Amino acid sequence: MPHQKRRSLRVRLITLVLIPSTALLVLWAALTALLVDDIRELRSTAALTEQIGTPVVETIGALQRERRATMDAARGTRSTALRLAYARQQTNAATKTLTESLGLFDGDDLPVQVLDFHEALEGLGSHRAGVDSILPSEITLEDNATAYTETIELGLRVWDAQIERAGPRQVPHLRSLTSLMRTRELLNQQDAVLAHAVATHTFSAQAHARFAAAAGAHHYTWDRVGAELSEEDGQEYVRLESYSALQHIHRLQENIISTPVQGTGTVPVNATAWQGAAEAVDSRMSSVEQGQIDKVIAFSHTQSTELRTNVLLISVPALVAALASTAIAVGGTHRLVRRLQDLRTSTLEHARLRLPAVTARLRAGEPVDLETEAPRLKVEHTDEIAQVAQAFNDAQRAAVATALEEAQVRAGVRNMFRNIARRTQTLVHRQLRLLDTLERNETDPTALEALFRIDHFSTQMRRNAENLMLLSGDPLHAKEWSPYDCTRWYGPRPARSRTTHVYGSRCCPRSHCARTWAPRRCGSWRNCWRTPPPSPHPTHK
User: Fold this and answer.
1) What is the SS3 assignment for 461?
2) Are 17 and 333 in contact (CB under 8 A)?
3) Any residues with CB less than 8 A from the CB of 407 and at least 6 apart, and which?
4) Confidence of residue 518 (pLDDT cuts 50, 70, 90)
5) Which residues are within 8 A (CB) of 506 and not within 5 positions of it... i.e. 6 or more apart?
């Protein structure tokens, strides 16, 4: 049971230490997991932007060119047909590149918008077959250009999804990029409307309204691009804003929108001037757009690297500090438990072995070296455990002092009994010697009997003195006397009688007369040894 309690104390102390350490490690793991998740999101965004975003942009550009070539094919000439075939080849090549890029990712990791855009591209073949099945003059904006516009919109939504996945610092760059893409798409929609109008030599009210809506959205998104660009990117926006071809496009837009539609007349602008300015602006926007994509990719990699560095600079020292604190706490706990175990072992050894042995020897009156046989516990610290050890030392000293005082009291009592006994023995022995002298010289039986009675009482007093000597703890040392034969009598005396036979015989305890008569002297066999007759041949008077 004590061993179990000791283990329980160790477990409790270690548990108390490990609970905050474990909580600290859990907190570190949670924060590190969040940072690692942010790094993974940044890397995923950078990978999608670099490996999928760029092919999506190229595919959107190919679709825009194919849409314009389809609208221009309404002329029905061989050159327009060849340009349409070439545009379709470019679209197919861009689609193939996008498909290969999508194959590098798991389907679960791809956004839904990417899958929808890829699915729309796969259905583009049926739309082309429908265009090829009709006459060039039957190509219309509503039936033939809308399919391309919807597919391009799905491609633009892929970049909108990137904004939702990006970090807060990356969102403004992606928003300005998507706004730039939509501005370019709106400009291409206007170009497709005018291309169809030039090819069919008609500009209906529906086409005019469609052109005006695209132009208004173009101005809105262009202003939004300028508002969302950073200071560095804003310089490129200013240069593009001051581009002469863009300014010419804006003036042509105003002329077209402000000119009222008269039936199904032609476009109220120079088609060649519009087409040249539109292609120049589209090329310039495409280069700015690609530069912005490169900046977004570079920013994603830079931010990911910075975040990884921050994680290493923060997480690793935090982990080291947590592990070090845990190790120090556990080590300190082990040292504390070891000190408690050493204190327990020392106190039990002193309490069960050393202290009882020392007190027993002190009570027996033996000399004891306390520093050797009952040393004080070593106190090397000044904490609570050291105070407990000091308190045990004080208790041990108090117990030894009490035992020593008790031994001194016992020794004093023994000395008192020894002194009393020795004094009494001295007086009794002197009295017995005097009685022996009187008994040898006395011949009167009556006086001799009185002397024998006094001798009997003196023997009892000597026995009481011997009892006191036993109480003092000293052993009895009987003197050796020479025994006498029972046949040796004092000789015939004048007054020889029963008294003489009873009290006058001085014989050996082994003799028959001693067993017969001496008990009447209260068993004092020592009289036969201490008081021999003065002479072996007594004389009778």
Assistant:
1) helix
2) yes
3) 362, 363, 364, 365
4) very low
5) 484, 488, 490, 527, 528, 531, 532, 533
Cα separation, 113 vs 117, in Å, equals 6
Q: Nearest 5°: phi and psi at 434?
A: -65, -40
Token pair 């609570």 in the structure block, residue: 384
**Does residue 312 contact residue 357 with C-beta atoms inside 8 Å?**
no
What does the alpha-carbon distance between residue 399 and residue 368 come to, in Å, rounded to a whole number? 14
Q: Which helix (H) or strand (E) holds 154?
A: helix 146-165
Integer Cα distance of 508 and 487 in angstroms: 10
* Contact by Cβ (8 Å): 264, 204: yes
User: What is the pLDDT at residue 517?
Assistant: 39
Task: Report the candidate in 540, 441, 526, 455 with the shortest Cα–Cα distance to residue 489.
Answer: 540
**Do residues 443 and 541 make contact, with C-beta atoms less than 8 angstroms apart?**
yes
* Per-residue pLDDT tens over the stretch 214-225: 989 888 888 777
Distance, in Å, from the CA atom of 162 to the CA atom of 178, rounded to the nearest integer, reads: 10
Residue 518, φ and ψ in degrees, nearest 5: -65, -30
Q: Are 61 and 286 in contact (CB under 8 A)?
A: yes
Using a 10 angstrom Cβ sphere, with 0-12 exposed, 13-18 middle and 19 or more buried, the burial of residue 217 is middle
Q: Under the phi-then-psi rule, with left for phi > 0, alpha for psi from -120 to 50, and beta for the rest, what region is 522?
A: left
Per-residue burial over 493-529, b = 16 or more CB atoms within 10 Å of its CB, e = otherwise:
beebeeebeebbbbbbeebebbeebbeebeebbbbbb
